[in-house]
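Standup notes
- DV: blocked on the single-chain target, sequence here:
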Amino acid sequence: MLRHLLVGLLAARAARALGEPQVLDFPVADEDHAGQALFAAPRSSAVLVASSPASYALPLLLSSNEDPAVHIAAATFARDVYKVTGVHPHIFNDTLPADVKKAWVVGTVASDVIAQVGGSVKDDLKRKWESYDVRVVDRPLKGLDEGIVVTGSDRRGTVYALYTLSEQMGVSPWYYWSDVPITKHEIVAFRKGATLAHGEPTVKFRGLFINDEHPAMWGWAQKTFHRELWEPAFQADFYEHWFELLLRLKANYHWPAMYISAFRTDGLDVSRGLPAKPTAGPNLVLADRMGIISGSSHHEPMERNKPEWDWFGQGDWDWTNREFLEKFWTYGAQRAKDKDVLYTVGMRGDGDMPLTGASIELVENITAVQLDILRETYGDKYDDVPKMWAMYKEVAEYFVDGLKIPDDVTVLFADDNFGNIMSVLPPEREHKGGAGIYYHIDYVGYPRAYKWINTINLAKTWQQMDIARAFKTDEIWIVNVGSLKPLEMPAEHFLTLAYDFEQWGGPETAVERFLHSWASRDYGADVAGEVADIMGRYSIYASRRKPELINSTMWSLINYEEADRILEDWEALTARAKKVYDALPQQTRPAFYQNVYMLCQMQTNINKLYIEVGKSNHFAYQARTAANTHARLALEAFENDWNLTATFHTLLDGKWEHMLDQTHINWETHLEPDGDALPPVSYVNPNQPVRVGIPVPERTIPHEVSTRVSVENSYGAWPGLTLWNCNGEGKCPDPTLWRMDPYGAPTRWINIGAGGPREVKWEIKTDQSWLSVSRAHGRLKRDASADARVYVSVDWASVPDGFDELAHVDVKAQDGANVTVSIPVYKPAGPPEGWHGIVEGDQYVVADAADFSSRRDTAEHALREVKGYGRHRSGLAQFPVDTANYTAGAGPSVSYDFWTHGLVDAAHAPDVTITLQIGPTLNYVLGKQLGLAVQLDDLDVAKIHPIPTERLGPQYEKPGAPGLYIGAVPNDWPEIVRNDVRNVTLGVPAAHFAEPGEHTLTVYGMTAGLVLERIWVDLGGIQARGYSYLGPPASVRV
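- DV (later): unblocked, structure below
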């Protein structure tokens, strides 16, 4: 039969686990379907795992006294084999039937079955944390010819091994939560000689925090699990899915939902109060059985959820109520005593607020009492009980001011709620309990909550967690994921870093490798490159500004065509996602829609909504009837937002209904509005012509016109006498465009639009043969449907060298609304032939950090590119991350060669400003300031410590309301997290740029942690133009 069997190692698609070496193959049998025969041959190169043609699946052998978590995972793995191949393997305890000669042998190093397997593997794994080894072993047990031995150092190590094998077979961790289809294979085989192994994870405790789950996940769970209104939404049937996901993602720790949930009692009958004997509820029991370590959030100490206090507490939540609090906490400890838990200690105020009457001494005393309760509860096992104290918000300030953390308690530092780590374990401070990070990809609080959609920059996550790892702040990493959807991808990214940081490589490749691996696993290798690039760009675009912080004036309508470019970028990304979506197999589309296509659609639409609102109001100010068109487009986008939400909620017969219930449009404070509302738009009366007003600037302009002329870099419209048309002294000249030169933007624009009831013909002429317009004539319609944007460009080859004069564009309208637009045109000599660098254009020089001309490394450090970081493309940061602090000018450096054309009257001109745009990093080492240095040409080196040391203090949004405490953040924090960038500006005397010539700007690293994104050299062009969110585009490089 072997001669009739054709077997090839051809996988239907890449199905490898993220970051793991592939050990499973998917041979293809010929039409005889003799599936098992080849693998029975003595020289077979693989062990058959399952074959649907042969109706065979390799059985599993476990010890009957193995940990329940391993038994549960083995049963799940067997179901996975069935889902992939259609054949369900048998599971045996302790012994195999006599006719079984091959099997999976599964267990921890302590199991009776694994103890019988020879070799050194189990000895190597002993006393390791969550490690595993999987390999083919000849005659592993008496009676077995061959076995695939799955050995775990402990229960979770064994579980991870099984779920990694499932993932390699084609069962994504997201098969339930994101509907990633399970890849079918007729035959699955394990390569002989291959080893699937993993040592101890990078971070010991790795988890997700369900938080801010109302209304989305709460509403979904109520519907999905058929809860009555009064019933807890999150019970064991929910958590079974949740814990399985965590384990498949190699997590081991969780903080449960806590808005209106009591994880430890939900599912118990507490209608008459809590059981007199502390009794773990079904959720906690399930977590322990499945192998998940339970914890509680930063303000819920001693295994008691906030709602438990609301329902069963007595008195005030402060230390004046000490007697009851001690009883309350003792109950929590006794209830959790026999379960796998990590205790939260410390005390914050009720409802995630500062504690009344708090001081460092008080919270230290409270924590000491809590530890005494644990000592009494656990006795001689106390030292084995993990404990952590979260340095969150005001508690972080206590730490900075000298709070003492007990040696056996892990210090859980936090980010600033916007992904910037506030503290790491001080390198000079040994702490037995270690330290960790509480991170956010969802947040409710000041200055703005964000809980609707994925807005996470993956490169920033990598860079910040690299800092934590470098400073041994790696005992606990836990991330707030809100309602999880649609944050699946950044949640997995965080956990992959926590599990094995090194596997993704350095800053140049880490994010791209993750995205490619993620996309290949869930959507297929053939689209992985395109999907990875789409989501890499999405990561940059979405993190520039949280949607909850966007408003109708965010993107400039008059400078750099910013608003239009923002929308074009999103529309292009959505079009690419749609193309992938349309080409995918039908069964893969729902998963891709949820994690890629829908995100692009939603982001495109909400940006369109605000831009259309902005245009409506802007054009109304200019008396253009286009205001009405854009008001209608804004309303269409507002309605489309609901249509997109409804599409998501009806997907797969409504499986995820309520998961996008979160309000997200037109926020005004840090907390969400009760409902989405269309921001105010403007309508103009299309029957009313424009009445220019008095004084009429020219007698030749009629009293009434229906034509509006507006130009780039001005809010005004002509003919007209608005504030932006006039100089404040009664003079209202025709508009002047910004100066054009060969190295700046290739065009300027002029809008010609309807401003009244008449249909008007117009034409444009220029006074120079080398000055061109994209359109020379047209006819306006009252509904603005024929409005035109006319681009002005220059044929620079035909412009005389050294030309520095005004050119003109004459707009003549049939209704007499004639406007002459002046355009300064300047053709400088430019750099000499053969010179390479960045050239001033539009009176500025802008360079992405990665576009340096040269670099110099030291023996220990280099400035390396963090690809995907920031608001544009990438950033540069000093690596490796450590405590090095160079003298200004001595560290690793990059240099930028640029050419300027000289400044007229430089002696009287204001300073030229150099702006370094850096990421919103914080001073994360206690008592130390991050720094870099800058040198222009041969001027003195300037040392820069960009992060203020003055603290922010409480913030007030509502008169009479208590202050909002953020923690030990700098006083510029609200602005830098809103904008996701920090601008550092230096002044240079204009005389330094008086003559045309070459300059070199050198940036030196001093410390790790700062990420340089862009450099601006403003020779007048940026400041004079005024506001734009992202600033000017990058300059020309020759």
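- Follow-up: The chain has a mean pLDDT of 95.
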